[in-house]
Specification:
The chain has 315 residues and is of the alpha/beta class. The protein is built from 12 helices and 7 strands. Helix content is 43%, strand content 14%. Helix 1 packs antiparallel against helix 2 and helix 7 packs parallel to helix 8. The chain is globular.
Length: 315
């Protein structure tokens, strides 16, 4: 990165945050969960960093809002969306919906890689060929591992001049993953960070429109900056005890039921006595079924190593 490009990226960031840009309605075809400032930022970064030899890649297509809006705004750039459509897809119709929307918008420069993000990134060269990734947008599963791993797996494919955009950076574990990446990969720098005071689902109706027109649930933009033109800064870190305690969850007999158990406990506290009893009954049924389905598990300290070899040399 040189100073001229940094000036361009700085201008893109400031324009996006100002909200002073032309809104596109994309013929009323597209819907989804992204803020307008974020989408404008993605489109402007793609315009600046992608082209013949550099493509746009995103994880988390959902119903095509960011992928297709970017493809429409940058018709000369090949745009790739990675999603196996396993989340937020109760009717199993999102893949077909995205394809339908592509036709309605006349999009010919977007490609759906219908696969798990890990498999897709392991074999990304088979999809994009010898080209590099100019803009990489991460908006898939938001657990810590699914935030950090894409950054690591995508690194070999990133162009010399590139930007990584991470959605939902309001979440502490997302911020932590991005911060851990930045600290372990010092050639990358945090260009800017943007937050909202809460997830849009937890905001009053009077604030939802503003957040939808803004950064939705927070965003981080990181760029490759080996020359150190950008002063190094890192997202705020919260207490790390939850990451340590996750070890106890993963090795517990009922590890998969941690979230249902939390929901049941919440209902016991906040719900009516009838709701609390129903929640506990459902949880007890789930526990009984889990023990029936996994009779060989221990109550704790499960390692899942019984099928692994005692010793295997790979030299």
């Amino acid at each position: 990165m040189n100073k001229e490009l940094l000036t361009v990226l700085d201008s893109i960031a400031r324009e996006a945050d100002s909200g002073q840009f032309e809104r596109r309605d994309f013929k009323g075809v597209l819907t989804g969960f992204s803020g307008e400032k974020l989408m404008h930022c993605l489109q402007a970064l793609t315009r600046a960093l992608c082209g013949k030899d550099a493509v746009y890649v995103e994880i988390g297509v959902f119903q095509g809002l960011t992928l297709l809006s970017n493809a429409v705004a940058n018709p000369g750039v090949d745009c790739f969306g990675i999603d196996n459509f396993s989340l937020f897809n109760e009717g199993k119709g999102n893949f077909a919906l995205v394809q339908e929307r592509m036709k309605k918008l006349g999009v010919t420069n977007a490609t759906i890689i219908n696969a798990d993000y890990e498999d897709a990134l392991h074999h990304l060269a088979s999809h994009i060929g010898p080209r590099k990734v100019g803009v990489f947008f991460v908006d898939g599963p938001h657990d810590y591992r699914s935030q950090l791993l894409p950054l690591l797996l995508a690194k070999p494919f990133l162009a010399e001049n590139c930007a990584i955009v991470v959605d939902d950076s309001n979440y502490a574990h997302v911020r932590q993953a991005n911060g851990d990446f930045l600290r372990s990969e010092p050639e990358f720098a945090l260009l800017f960070e943007a937050y909202t005071r809460a997830h849009i689902a937890n905001l009053p109706a009077t604030e939802k429109a503003e957040v939808a027109a803004g950064w939705w649930n927070g965003a981080h933009v990181m760029v490759r900056d080996p020359s150190g033109l950008i002063p190094r800064a890192y997202p705020a870190e919260d207490a790390k005890h939850l990451y340590v305690e996750s070890h106890e969850t993963f090795r517990h007999e009922f590890a998969e039921l941690a979230f249902p158990a939390l929901k049941a406990a919440q209902t016991m506290l906040d719900g009516t006595p009838e709701q609390a009893n129903e929640a506990m009954a459902r949880l007890k049924t789930m526990l009984i079924e889990a023990r029936r389905d996994h009779p060989d598990r221990f109550k704790n300290q499960n390692t899942y190593s019984e099928r692994l070899p005692q010793f295997k040399l790979h030299a």
